Amino acid sequence: MLGELLLMKGNEAVAEAAIRAGCRHFFGYPITPQNELPEYMARRLPEVGGVFVQAESEVAAINMVYGAAGAGARVMTSSSSPGISLKQEGISYLAASELPCLIVNMMRGGPGLGGIQPAQSDYFQATKGGGHGDYHLIVFGPESVQEMVDLTPLAFDLADRYRNPAMILGDGILGQMMEPVELSEMLDVQLPPKEWATTGRSGGRRHVVSSLYLDSSELEKLNKRLQDKYLEIMRTEQRWESLDVEGAEVVLVAYGTTARVVKSAMNLAREEGIRVGLIRPITLWPFPTKAFESLEDVGRFLVVEMSSGQMVEDVRLVVNGRWPVSFYGRTGGVVPDPKDILARIRELARGGGTR
Amino acid sequence: MLHEILIAGFGGQGVMSMGMLLAYAGMTEGLKTSWMPSYGPEMRGGTANCSVVIASDAIGSPLVTEPSGLVVMNLPSLEKFERKVKPGGLMVINSSLVKKKASRDDIEVLYVPANDIADELGNPRVANMVALGAFVAKLRPVKLDSVKASLKKVLPERRHDLIPLNERALDRGAGLVD
């Protein structure tokens, strides 16, 4: 660590963190609220001998990522909700071809072209596949600029380790806000050997990166291998933060920006003598089921999201009827107010409210 | 300690830099800080605002909806945000441009002729620093010296020759508060 604190916008901090983690290739297409990320890359990558291309579309950008990843490069792209939707075909191809890369989604309100204000309504798309076919990305949901910066090198490393695309799922607030941040020094990154990469080298075995399998038994073999890999990721890569969960009357579950708002609401609840806890998923896929497994003395759960209720489904799956799970969400770019969350907490702590 | 600050005005008045200076100054004092710009359609209409949180503990929402400190640099900002100030909070009004008086009597209001003082200093563009100087002197979320020291971090290098002028403007604003 350098130790020097910088005041940086989330979008710019992620870009710098990616460069320091050895990323030298960026392909993207502009969209609010993440434009500072490609803008920063356009300025900074040439300084470090990297490549920045503003593609003609999101579809082109994600396929450039495919090409660079196939050649073994550490590569990333970024966009916001509608742009990420356009990238889904390419993301499915990347997952099928087992190509490591980092995709950043600074979510905005949807559906459709939606708005430009922060939202979390791409959770399903990010964690359940998003494109066609059976696949998963490794998805991180940071709550601060610092955490986003800390997770960036990890996302690249896990993408390489598992040969799987990784995603940082932020939102308009995380992209636009400035916070003090401590960056690591420029890492001397030695990428793991990528024996499969198409490097143009002559001699030896021919390397082919493809997701086309016309023989169904071969395609099923690929699917089995992918599922085995996903199981291993679910076993070993769950990350979360737990606060005061045991003994809580109401355990909140929230990620990203919403988790910060929830923490403010929890402070208000504590002042009123309500025992509240928090489970904050840091990996959204794999979902941190382990955080829920050994719980005993818990009253009930309240999931808060900037969506109509997406992560709440994963919470209900893991809670599996042991405790009531309620939901509070705001949509369209509206950020929940701590006082409104407090009102829900009060209601639930008194034993009211079934949804 | 928790200061939730909103600074509002039209584009070009330097409201974003005012917020950044506060956030930077807070950071150098070892406090938790966040800065969040408005980036929605209101920006396109010509008004801009930013939220700054300065706190001793971890910051929850960086979005300020009920400010404990508000700076309004123009009339639309007064009309939009005055009613949102927390009771007992502080509102600084740029009285050079805002001829209307505050209608709240449960908050502290400071009228600062920021543009007039900036004109006296010879550069209308430092009106934001006059208002910020008064705001910091009254609310004391950070030290005025920390704000001054942050100028060279927040202003682009090509504007560093204007640092002494900005410092004078901060002092003039602070001088309005006893």
Can you give a write-up of this model?
The complex is a heterodimer of chains A (355) and B (178). Chain A is an alpha/beta fold. Chain A folds into 2 domains: 5-236, 3-Layer(aba) Sandwich (Rossmann fold); 241-349, Rossmann fold, CATH 3.40.50. In chain A, 39% of the residues lie in helices and 19% in strands. Chain A has helices spanning 10-20, 36-44, 58-70, 81-86, 88-96, 123-127, 145-162, 172-176, 216-236, 256-271, 290-293, 311-319, 338-349, and strands spanning 5-9, 25-28, 51-54, 75-79, 101-107, 138-140, 165-171, 178-182, 240-243, 250-253, 276-281, 283-285, 300-305, 325-329. In chain A, the strands form 3 sheets. Chain A has a 7-stranded mixed beta sheet with strand order 3-2-4-5-7-6-12, sandwiched between helices. Chain A has a 5-stranded mixed beta sheet with strand order 9-11-10-13-14, with helices on both faces. In chain A, strand 2, helix 2 (36-44) and strand 3 (51-54) form a beta-alpha-beta unit. The longest helix of chain A is centred in the middle third of the chain and has 21 residues, at 216-236. Chain A is globular. The mean pLDDT of chain A is 96. With 178 residues, chain B is an alpha/beta fold. Chain B has a single domain (2-175), classed as Pyruvate-ferredoxin oxidoreductase, PFOR, domain III (Pyruvate-ferredoxin Oxidoreductase, domain 3, 3-Layer(aba) Sandwich), CATH 3.40.920. In chain B, 39% of the residues lie in helices and 21% in strands. Chain B has 7 helices and 6 strands; from the N terminus they run E-H-E-H-E-E-H-E-E-H-H-H-H. Chain B has helices at residues 15-28, 41-44, 75-81, 114-121, 127-139, 144-154, 163-175, and strands at 2-10, 32-37, 47-55, 69-72, 90-94, 108-112. Chain B has a 6-stranded mixed beta sheet, with helices on both faces. In chain B, strand 4 (69-72), helix 3 and strand 5 form a beta-alpha-beta unit. In chain B, helix 1 packs across helix 6 (144-154), helix 4 packs across helix 7 (163-175) and helix 5 crosses helix 7 (163-175). The longest helix of chain B has 14 residues, at 15-28. Chain B starts with a strand and ends with a helix. The model of chain B has no long low-confidence stretch (mean pLDDT 95). The interface between A and B is medium-sized, with 26 and 20 residues.
